[in-house]
Design a protein that fits this description.
Structural class: alpha/beta
Strand order of the largest sheet: 7-8-9-10-11-12-13-14
Distance between the termini: 37 Å
Strand content: 15-25%
Bound molecules: phosphoenolpyruvate, manganese (II) ion
Mean pLDDT: 96
Radius of gyration: 21 Å
Helix content: 25-40%
């Protein structure tokens, strides 16, 4: 349950409501929706008559939801959230985040950054801490990689997104990155979610490859309820019986998430397909389904990439993909 305070409610009204709820044994989670304060309730809410909540001064509405998540729910926020990453607004025009799977070296990431910037990307991606399935695979350059990525971002004017894999490195990654990515394997690493919830830099939250949409939004709720409102959801494909592709892009999840949440939703056509020939068609589908952006693996020399080369496209292919997606965006009333 959530209490929406009136936009003109006095601070004292909000404080009174919080004290009253505390005296009833209810836990509260405060957030802002434009000028209105939202108070999320948890604990023995069912024991309190709704009329009592409704009668507190400054209360506009008492809202119930069938969803187990609250701050992430569209029931409680009238407007879609726009998350600012550097000077890019995610949730307005469609964004294209592009770059290599891994930062492999200074020259590689500079070349990739120039390539994607030239192709029309709006943000740069690149992993410095790589969560690899095998301990023998390239694990990333760690802080050295973050430095090269930040330099490439500064050089091209593109904000940078990179993955963080451990709570203790959140601060370090946030020093270099404009947005932090939580990978599919860490979607339910609750200590990590709480840690990125304590900073204000935006978080790209990938859906767990074996997680339901509800679990994904509850993970978003961990970040939001820890105090960071800047969450971008990313559908990156789930595990199914299908073997023709690396994962199965759940296009339904894009539409569902846009319906039940106010958070921006982006799509990763690289990890969801695992095949470079499929990246462009699946990107077009994502834009048609209403995605707010794409995150795409692009490498200057995909065949010699240290990770995920088989699903990486070249900057020239990215330029073509962006042109195609632009036409689709216009057809569905969006801009790219
Ligand atoms: C990545 O973006 O390179 C990555 C590892 O993604 P995911 O967590 O979706 O597998
Ligand atoms: Mn990858």
């Amino acid at each position: 349950m959530i209490i929406r305070m009136r936009a003109d409610a006095a601070k004292a009204d909000v404080e009174f409501a919080l004290a009253r709820l505390a005296s009833l044994g209810i836990q509260t989670h405060v957030s802002l929706d434009g000028p209105s304060t939202l108070i999320g309730l948890s604990g023995p809410v069912a024991t309190v008559p709704e009329s009592l909540l409704q009668s507190m001064r400054g209360v506009e509405a008492v809202l119930a939801t069938k969803q187990p998540f609250r701050l992430a729910s569209s029931d409680f926020r009238r407007d879609r959230s726009v998350v600012r990453v550097g000077d890019v607004a995610v949730g307005e025009d469609i964004v294209v985040i592009a770059g290599p799977c891994s930062v492999e070296g200074r020259d590689q990431v500079l070349l990739a950054a120039e390539g994607v910037a030239h192709a029309g990307a709006t943000m740069l991606r690149g992993g410095a801490f790589k969560p690899r399935t095998s301990p023998y695979s390239f694990q990333g350059l760690a802080e050295e990689g973050l430095k090269y990525l930040a330099e490439a971002g500064a050089e091209t004017g593109l904000p940078v997104v990179t993955e963080v894999v451990a709570p203790e490195s959140v601060e370090l990654v946030a020093e270099y990155a404009d947005a932090l990515q939580i990978g599919t394997r860490n979607m339910q690493n609750f200590a990590l979610l709480a840690a990125v919830g304590k900073i204000s830099k935006p978080v790209v939250l990938k859906r767990g490859m074996m997680s339901t949409i509800e679990e994904w939004l509850l993970s978003a709720e961990y970040i939001l309820s820890s105090g960071n409102p800047n969450v971008i959801l990313c559908e990156r494909g789930i595990r199914t019986f299908e073997t023709a592709t690396r994962n199965t892009l759940d296009i339904n999840a894009v539409a569902v998430a846009l319906e039940i949440s106010h958070l921006p939703v982006i799509v990763d056509p690289s990890h969801s397909t695992g095949r470079r020939s499929l990246v462009a068609p699946v990107s077009r589908a994502a834009v048609a389904a209403g995605a707010d952006g794409l995150i795409i693996e692009v490498h200057p020399d995909p065949d010699h990439a240290q990770s995920d080369g088989f699903q990486s496209i070249t900057p020239a292919q990215l330029a073509e993909l962006i042109e195609q997606c632009r036409s689709v965006a216009e057809a569905v009333g969006r801009r790219l």
